[in-house]
Each structure stands twice: as structure tokens, then as C-alpha cells.
Write a structure and sequence with these properties.
The complex is a heterotrimer of chains A (186), B (119) and C (552). By secondary structure, chain A is of the alpha/beta class. In chain A, 26% of the residues lie in helices and 20% in strands. In chain A, strands 2-1-8-7-6-5-4-3 form an eight-stranded mixed beta sheet. Chain B is built from four helices and five strands; from the N terminus they run βββαββααα. Chains in contact: A-C, B-C.
């Protein structure tokens, strides 16, 4: 089984990847799979019905908006499934996946795994974590320790994103009230 | 005729290939003719990513008393900026500097166009 | 001006530490140049013709005396003793070594300076009116909002890998000294009909290969909503800006392709879904930032300074300086002083370390410790007492900083061009020098009046040639340097792209062509007309004839 880096309990660990990435023209094997967006839309429910967890791979030019179900059509909360959304970085400097990740977390309240795949490099780890990614398939051989070091470089941030970090101005507010609200990061 | 040039990674200095080393003076650069093209030197240079950035071949022409790059851009790289004589390699003087400074006319040099296309 | 507190300083320290680490990985071969390049660009470090170039951020063009001294220190210690002020109110050093870069950033950080996001496909330095806080023309100090936007855009995790660079300008006066309409986003502060403060939001301006004037997508956005609205715009751009062709990747292309109406619809739809409560700043934070830009401690002085009036009556040089470089201040007894970095024959926008140190001293002595940088590569001492003008002028004159040519023909914007820049096709500095020297005579320059010449060494248009009254674009014709002239551009509130005059001219004909154009203007002008006004009335033909038809 291949491995990937996962964010867990505030740290980063090496974890087994129970998902198999399946190309459109391949038969779907046993176990959990990640398929393309088109295949997910066509076969996703059927595949999941066999007791699998099914994930979807979203290319940079595909929109996560299309994953959200029409609410009038179904009574379930949008994005109850897939189990994992793999967002592609075709090239590390193609930043569209950052938007996709934030929307999944902040707009669609997705609580499954958001995984970074493609040209995924440790120098972008901090941005990825802040946008809501919690799993990473590094293309540069990074270890979880290296990933953690890269993701934790900044004691302060200046804006809110998909993570729970408070921006500098909110930290100051907490400090000025005497720090009782526990807003300041240690 | 060609010369292989690049910028040194550590300080950005303009350098030229000379038989396996990098030199700072155009006058010391190894010249490649049609019979001994610079392709293998270029390949060798590209395998040194922690030494130089983006090596490429530039065209040079023979003048009455020396050699000069054919394009303004490469002459400026070999000499220094033209808005002051005190900065860049021109400040060190020397025969090769004088030859380039006196060079007349200009033409496009293939190297930079190829760089742009490659991007 | 904004003062860093412990949090801000820790942020800079962490950034320096990160960059030092990244440089180390590059030097050790752990990163390719392709992987390293965006990282060093996001710390302002370019690789140019002769060396690395470092572009230091001067947020909304405002510097303290201490910061100016630090820039002088960097110039002396790590460069060749000078720096170049740019068309985005920043400072560039042209002879930097990669091995020094992290140390330089550390030295800068001690003065709360940095090079964060001065390059790269991210949100760049937010520029603002260089007369902010001093001019009576403004409805609010635009720097308050420039600072708010600066912080929000710093290491924004969603918008650090955009399709292309992103430039924002903020202005608050009817007269626009920021070229806001040629920015990706231009924000014009105004009072609404009910008196509330709002922004006119203009999107999709830009120069370069395809110049555009920005289009208004919102007439009045309440100022407190600016950050959530910017998130909406940037998100639409990040998702839909082109990534297949760097020459078609700016937001101006997206706006043109969708049309302003559809683009606006997408932004407004996105904005409606953004939780402003999370993104927009609470009133307490707005008040905190605003507090740093509160009116300075001005003395109560008479509107007219007898000492100054006497001095200028006695000294024609001071009188000329006052005519061209000094502007009215909102406070009686004070003035805004433009410091020209365009001494004819010198490199436009350059200042030596000695000049920087002197300007720091003068700022402390005469300008409440503040200096500004304009997008026309000049400086400003914003709060000078009229009583002090004569003494200030004398000291500036002694240091070659008193050229009385602001907005005149010799106040030329020129990019570094082929002398320094790896992107250039032709040189810009020698062209500027030739023109400025030809029109160096102050009487002649004043006779001609306001004439903004802007020179770019390539189509990237860092010299803003598209919006020059006379624009000059360097092109490469079979390896020779040729120059394309345009007329009638303007970067002010009446923004317009210049019109091509005719075929490109060789380098040695450019100054003469400018002479011909000036001759036509002096011949044709009516009372009160600037060059731009005469051109707008007569059109291109008489100018075209003078340069191309009349025998020489």
C-alpha cells in the first residue's frame, strides 16, 4: 500500500493510503478508490453501494461547485459523500486548488479528507494547510517532519482562511483583554 | 561563432564557459566555431544547477582586433550598463573590454530568442 | 504612518528565516531553479543582466527617516552605493548577490522593511497618493486602506499563486496621482450621496502588451466591506484567469473577455456568498490602523510666511523651485515639497546612499520625519513649513536634489531598460538623458510647461509609456534599438492610452523628434493649454507631419 502525509492531531504523520487512484479506462478494483470527476458523477453512487469509500479527483480546471448537490433534489446535506476530494496541482504554481480547498471547507462544510496531489512541494505546505488541505502526496520526497517544519514557519497570520488561525488583529484583541480568552497561540 | 554564457547562482555575476571552468571576462571565453559547436558544453553547463543559472549560447563576431557579441544585450552583459562607466566589467578595463565597446552594428543573437521560446 | 508592533516584527523575522532556509535548499541542490524562482520572486529577488536585483517594498510610498537610512545602509554595504525608485513606489537595488539576500532582508527587517510580494504572481505593493495626509483634496487618507489591504494580502494562502501579478492602487482625491485606472484594481475613495465613505471599484486596467483602462464594476462600495469584496474579485480571477499563456493572464484580459457586466455579475455572486463577518475588519481594528495616520502635530502658523515671500522675491532659483516643486498643504503655513530625482543627464529615479542619508536628515528636520515616493520616480517631503523652504531648498540644491522640473519635460520616467533588465529590448536611460539634456535649460522647460514623457525599454511597460503625454517604447529591430513614439496618453484621472505616432525611429533620432513635437506644440498652443490639451484639440496629424514629413 502506498503512503501519504496526513494532518492529524495538529501534527503530520505518514499514513497508509487506503485509496487506489483509478483511471477512467481501468476497471475498478476492490477497496476504496479515487476516480475522476466524470466517472464519479456517472458511477460514484453505484461504486459506493458496494461498501467502498469513493473519492473524487478534481482537476485544476474543474469546479468544486459542481460537487455540491442540488438541495431541492435531495434531502441530504450537500457533499455527504465523497469520502475524499483529491485536488490537483498540475504545476506547483497553478494556484486554483487553493481556492477549491477553501470552498470545500468554508462554503460546503466538507469534513472528509482534502488531499493535495500532483506537483505538490513542501514550500507550499503552509498555504495548503491554511486552505484546508489535510492530506498530501508530495512530489518532492518530503517527510512528515519536513512538511511540519514548512507548514509551521509563521507564528502569525494576517487574514482568515479555512483553518482556525486567528489573524493578527484578533490576537491583539485577545492580548488587550489580558489574554483570558485564550485566543493567542502559544 | 558562439560563446557559452550564464549567470552564476551565488552572486548573479555574468560568466562565460572556458574549457570546463567559468570565467568572468568575455575575453577569456572559449569560442565555438561551426566545426566545434558548443552543444556539449551547454549540456555540461546545464548539469550544474548549483553553479550557474540558465546557460545559453550567444553569437559572437570577429572584429578587426578581437571578438564581440553580436547583440547589444550581450555586449551590455559583457561590459556593464551604459549609463555609467564605473559599474560592471568595463570598470576593470582591458583589451577585450575595449574591443566590445568599439563594436559597431548589432544583430539579434540566437541565445536569448531560444530562451524565450523554451519558456 | 503604520508602526510595527511585536506581532508584525515576529512576522518579518519568520519570513527572513523562511527565505534563508529556502536559499539554503537551493544552494544545496534540493530545489531546482524552476521551484526556487517563484519563492525568490515573492521576496523581491530577480536575476537580471549583471546580478540579482532586489525590489524593496515601500508600502503606499511612505518612508520614515530611519527607514531611508536603512536603505542607504543596504546600498552602501551590499550594493554599489545607490538605489533606484520605481514606478510602483518601491526601491530597487541592481547589484545584489544571492548569498547576501537573507542578510539584507534581516537588516531591512530591523527597520520594519521587507521585500515581501514585490514580485511573483501574487498581490504586489499597494500604492497610494504620495500627497496623502497632506493635501486638502482628499476625502480620507488613502493609506489607511492601503495598509488594511497590505496586511490582508500578505501571504494570503489562497492568492499566492495567481495566474499573474496583481496590482492595486488607492486614491482619495479628484486628481489622481497613482494612475489608478491602469491598475488591476483601482480604488477611488469618495463620499456617497449620504456622506458615507465608499470606494469606486475599477478593475482590469493595465499597461503592457495590451493596455486597458480599468472599468468600474461598483460605483460605491462601503469602505468597511473592502476586504471581502477584494476576496471575491481575486477568487474569480484565481479560478478563471488564463494559465495557458502568460501574455493573456492578467485580470484585464478576463474582464475584456467576459465583458464588464458578466465579470461584475460573477464578482457580486461570489461576494454574496462570502461571510463578511469573518473577512472584513471589525471597527476596532479599523480604528487602530487609522490611528497611525492621524494628523501630525502641525503648528498654528499664518497662511503666508513673510520670510519665505522675501526669500523667493530675492532668489529666482527658489522662486522657480516654488513654482514647479511646491504644492499647497491642507494646513496653513505648510507646503508639500516634491524632490526631483531627474537631474538632467543623471539616471532618472536614482539616488545615492549619501543623498538618501541627507533626505533622512531633511525629513527629520523639516518634514516631521516622513518621506514619500511617487510613481513617477520622485520623492516628496510632505509636511514642510513655508518658513523652512528657503533653507531646505539650499540644502537640496547642494546635493543635486533641487531640479525645479516636476512634471516638466525633463521630469522623465524611464525604466532601467536594457542597461539592467533581462526582459528589455532596448535601453531607456540614455534616451531619457539625451532628451533631458536637450531641454535642461530651466526657462525653456518652464516655457513648455507640463509635459510627461515616459520611456519603456520593452512592451512590459514598466516605464508606463502608454500613458505618457509622449510615450516612448524601445523595440528590437534586427538587433538595433528603435523607438516607437505615442502621443496623448494620460495616467491621471483622465486616463487614456497614447496613440502611435508613426514607424519606430532609430535611437539617434529620438531626441530630435521630441524637439519637433515640442515645436509643433509651441506653435499651435492656445492660452492655458498644456501639451496634452493641444494634442487633444489638434489630433495627431500636425505632430506626425513634423516628425515624418518635414525634411531634415
Amino acid at each position: 500500500m502506498s503512503q501519504l502525509i496526513r494532518r492529524e492531531a495538529g501534527g503530520f504523520i505518514l499514513a497508509d493510503d487506503r485509496f487506489t487512484a483509478v483511471a477512467d479506462d481501468e476497471p475498478v478494483p476492490e477497496g476504496d478508490v479515487i476516480v475522476s470527476f466524470a466517472r464519479f458523477q456517472a458511477e460514484g453512487e453505484a461504486l459506493a453501494a458496494h461498501g467502498r469509500d469513493v473519492g473524487v479527483r478534481v482537476e485544476a480546471d474543474e469546479s468544486v461547485d459542481d460537487l455540491a448537490y442540488d438541495l431541492p433534489r435531495t434531502s441530504v446535506v450537500a457533499l455527504m459523500f465523497p469520502a475524499v476530494v483529491a485536488l490537483v496541482f498540475p504545476k506547483f504554481r497553478d494556484g486554483r486548488a487553493f481556492t477549491s480547498a477553501r470552498l470545500l471547507r468554508e462554503r460546503y462544510a466538507f469534513t472528509g479528507e482534502v488531499r493535495a496531489v500532483g506537483d505538490v512541494l513542501r514550500e507550499q505546505a503552509g498555504f495548503m494547510v491554511r486552505c484546508g488541505f489535510d492530506a498530501f502526496e508530495p512530489a518532492d520526497g518530503s517527510t512528515p517532519e519536513q512538511w511540519a517544519a514548512a507548514a509551521n514557519r509563521f507564528r502569525h497570520v494576517y487574514q482568515r482562511a479555512a483553518d482556525d488561525r486567528e489573524p493578527a488583529f484578533a490576537e491583539r484583541d485577545g492580548a488587550s483583554i489580558g489574554g483570558n480568552h485564550g485566543l493567542r497561540r502559544v | 561563432m558562439n560563446v557559452l554564457t550564464a549567470n552564476r547562482l551565488i552572486d548573479g555575476e555574468v560568466v562565460f564557459w572556458a574549457h570546463g571552468r567559468w570565467v568572468e571576462r568575455f575575453g577569456e571565453a572559449e569560442r565555438f566555431g561551426d566545426d566545434a559547436p558548443g552543444g556539449s558544453a551547454e549540456a555540461h553547463a546545464k548539469s550544474q544547477p548549483t553553479v550557474v543559472v540558465e546557460p545559453y549560447l550567444i553569437e559572437i563576431a570577429e572584429t578587426e582586433d578581437g571578438f564581440a557579441p553580436v547583440s547589444y544585450r550581450e555586449r551590455i552583459r559583457a561590459l556593464g550598463p551604459t549609463n555609467t562607466p564605473h559599474h560592471g566589467k568595463q570598470a576593470e578595463g582591458g583589451h577585450d573590454v575595449e574591443v566590445i565597446a568599439r563594436a559597431e552594428g548589432a544583430a539579434r543573437s540566437g541565445g536569448r530568442i531560444n530562451l524565450i521560446k523554451r519558456k | 504612518m503604520y508602526r510595527y508592533d511585536a506581532l508584525d516584527k515576529e512576522f518579518l523575522a519568520d519570513r527572513v528565516s523562511e527565505f534563508r532556509h529556502q536559499v539554503g535548499r537551493r544552494l544545496a541542490g534540493e530545489m531546482t531553479e524552476d521551484q526556487f524562482k517563484p519563492l525568490r520572486l515573492m521576496n523581491g529577488l530577480y536575476l537580471q543582466l549583471h546580478a540579482y536585483m532586489l525590489r524593496i517594498a515601500i508600502p503606499y510610498g511612505t518612508l520614515s527617516a530611519a527607514q531611508m537610512r536603512t536603505l542607504a545602509h543596504v546600498a552602501r554595504t551590499y550594493d554599489k552605493g545607490y538605489g533606484h525608485f520605481t514606478t510602483r513606489q518601491n526601491l530597487q537595488f541592481h547589484w545584489i548577490k544571492l548569498r547576501d539576500a537573507a542578510d539584507i532582508l534581516e537588516d531591512l527587517a530591523r527597520a520594519d522593511l521587507h521585500a515581501i510580494q514585490t514580485s511573483g504572481n501574487c498581490i504586489r505593493n499597494v500604492t497610494a497618493d504620495p500627497h496623502a495626509g497632506a493635501t486638502a483634496e482628499e476625502v480620507d487618507d488613502p493609506r489607511v486602506w492601503a495598509e488594511v489591504i497590505r496586511q490582508w494580502s500578505t501571504l494570503h494562502p489562497e492568492f499566492s499563486f495567481l495566474p499573474r501579478k496583481f496590482k492595486i492602487a488607492v486614491t482619495a482625491s479628484a486628481r489622481d496621482r497613482t494612475a489608478a485606472k491602469t491598475h488591476d484594481i483601482g480604488l477611488q475613495l469618495r463620499r456617497g450621496r449620504d456622506g458615507s465613505l465608499g470606494f469606486e471599484v475599477m478593475v482590469g486596467g493595465g499597461l503592457g502588451r495590451t493596455p486597458y483602462i480599468g472599468q468600474t464594476i461598483r460605483e460605491h462600495l462601503p469602505v468597511g466591506r473592502i476586504l471581502s469584496y477584494l476576496e471575491a474579485i481575486l477568487r474569480v480571477y484565481n479560478r478563471h484567469g488564463r494559465r495557458d499563456n502568460i501574455y493573456k493572464a492578467r485580470i484585464k484580459i478576463l474582464v475584456a473577455q467576459l465583458g464588464a457586466e458578466e465579470f461584475t455579475r460573477q464578482v457580486e455572486a461570489e461576494w454574496a456568498q462570502i461571510d463578511g463577518g469573518r473577512i472584513d475588519l471589525p471597527d476596532t481594528e479599523l480604528a487602530r490602523v487609522r490611528g497611525y495616520f492621524a494628523a501630525a502635530d502641525f503648528e498654528t502658523l499664518p497662511a503666508v510666511s513673510k520670510a519665505f515671500e522675501a526669500a523667493r522675491a530675492a532668489d529666482p532659483a527658489l522662486a522657480r523651485f516654488a513654482r514647479n516643486n511646491v504644492h499647497a498643504h491642507k494646513t496653513p503655513g505648510y507646503a508639500i515639497v516634491d524632490v526631483s530625482l531627474k537631474t538632467p543627464g543623471e539616471t532618472p529615479g536614482d539616488a545615492s546612499a549619501e543623498q538618501m542619508d541627507l533626505l533622512a536628515d531633511l525629513a527629520e528636520r523639516y518634514s516631521l520625519g516622513e518621506i514619500r515616493v511617487t510613481h513617477e520616480q520622485n520623492l516628496v517631503l510632505p509636511h514642510v513649513k513655508l518658513d523652512d523652504l528657503a533653507a531646505l531648498h539650499a540644502t537640496l540644491a547642494g546635493a543635486g536634489l533641487a531640479s525645479p522640473n516636476i512634471s516638466l519635460i525633463s521630469d522623465i520616467i524611464a525604466c532601467p531598460g536594457l542597461d539592467y533588465c533581462a526582459l528589455a529590448n532596448a535601453r531607456a536611460i540614455p534616451i531619457a538623458q539625451a532628451i533631458a539634456e536637450r531641454f535642461a535649460q530651466p526657462d525653456l522647460a518652464e516655457k513648455i510647461g507640463e509635459l510627461k514623457i515616459k520611456i519603456s525599454g520593452c512592451i512590459n511597460a514598466c516605464g508606463h509609456h502608454h500613458v505618457g503625454h509622449i510615450g516612448i517604447l524601445g523595440v528590437d529591430k534586427k538587433g538595433e534599438e528603435f523607438y516607437q513614439l505615442t502621443l496623448g496618453g494620460s495616467g491621471a484621472e483622465d486616463a487614456e492610452v497614447g496613440k502611435i505616432l508613426g514607424p519606430a525611429l532609430p535611437a539617434n533620432r529620438v531626441a530630435g523628434a521630441v524637439d519637433d513635437l515640442v515645436e509643433v506644440y509651441l506653435r499651435e498652443r492656445r492660452e492655458g493649454e498644456r501639451f496634452l490639451d493641444t494634442f487633444r484639440r489638434t489630433g495627431l496629424q500636425p505632430f506626425k507631419d513634423a516628425v515624418y514629413v518635414t525634411a531634415h
